[in-house]
Specification:
The chain has helices at 2-16, 39-59, 68-90. By secondary structure, it is mostly helical.
Length: 91
C-alpha cells in the first residue's frame, strides 16, 4: 500500500525538483548561520572531493559492459534484484 502511495507522489516529486540546481561533484551542505567553518576544513573537503573524482574516473572503464559474459552477468543481477524487490509485493 505504501508503494502505491509513493508511486502516486513520484511524478509530483520529480516535477518539483529542478535539474538546473544540480551540481556535479560532491555536494556541500550550506553553512549554518553563526557557525564558522575553518579554511582547513574547507580545503580538506576540496581534497577529498578531488580524490573521489579521480577514483571514480579511473574506476568507470572497469565497470563497462564489454563482452557477452558481462552482459549475461548484468542481466542475471538485474533479474535477481527485480525478483527480490517485486516478489514480496505480490505475496
Amino acid at each position: 500500500m505504501a508503494a502505491v502511495l509513493l508511486l502516486r507522489k513520484l511524478p509530483k516529486m520529480l516535477n518539483s525538483y529542478s535539474m538546473k540546481n544540480q551540481t556535479s561533484g560532491a555536494l556541500i551542505a550550506p553553512e549554518p548561520a553563526g557557525i564558522r567553518v575553518s579554511e582547513n576544513l574547507k580545503a580538506l573537503n576540496e581534497q577529498v572531493s578531488n580524490i573521489q573524482c579521480r577514483y571514480y574516473r579511473v574506476l568507470a572503464p572497469d565497470c563497462e559492459i564489454k563482452t557477452e559474459a558481462d552482459c549475461w552477468y548484468f542481466r542475471a543481477i538485474v533479474s535477481v534484484s527485480y525478483t527480490h524487490l517485486t516478489l514480496p509485493t505480490i505475496a
